[in-house]
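Sat 14:20. Reprocessing the chain from the morning session after the first attempt stalled halfway. Input below, unchanged.
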Amino acid sequence: MNRLAGVFYEHEEFRRRHECASAAAVAELLRLGEPVEEVAALLGVDAGRVRALKSLAQQAPPAGSDGSSESS
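Finished this time. Tokens:
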């Protein structure tokens, strides 16, 4: 059971990181002046999803600052 919980946690963390990366890319396209509708068409989603990703990007910490104490 613990292994299953660990796999679930890893999957959720991967999904969260992927969504944050997508949000950052969407926010950058919008910042560069691309219309919401065009970004949505590019991604194959509706405009509401693009707005949600933009909102997520505004809430997320900057890339590379995930709060971990890892150093390179």
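The CA atoms of residues 64 and 72 lie 11 Å apart.
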